Automatic annotation (TrEMBL):
This is 3',5'-cyclic-nucleotide phosphodiesterase. It comes from Methylobacterium oxalidis. It comes from the Bacteria.
Amino acid sequence: MAERGERIMRFGVAVFVITVIGAGAAGARETSPERKALQRYCTGDLVTFCDGMAPDSPEVQACFEKNMSKLSPGCQKAIKRYNRTRNRG
C-alpha cells in the first residue's frame, strides 16, 4: 500500500515539475496550450527519466535534453513546440 501512495505522490510532484518548466513565462502564457501540452505529454517521461529531481531546478530541463531521444514522441513534440513559442516571445 505504501508503494501506491509513493507513486501517487511522485505523480503529483511530476505534474508540479511540468508546471514549473514553463514558470519563466508570465501572465497568459502560463496557461498556454504549449504548457498544457507539456503537462499532458511529458509527465510520464519525467517520472521515468528525471525522477527525484527538485521540481524547480535546471536539472529537470537538462534531464529532458539529455534524454530527448528516449522521450515519448508526444513529449518530444510538446517540448519542441514549447521552446519555439518561448523563443519567439
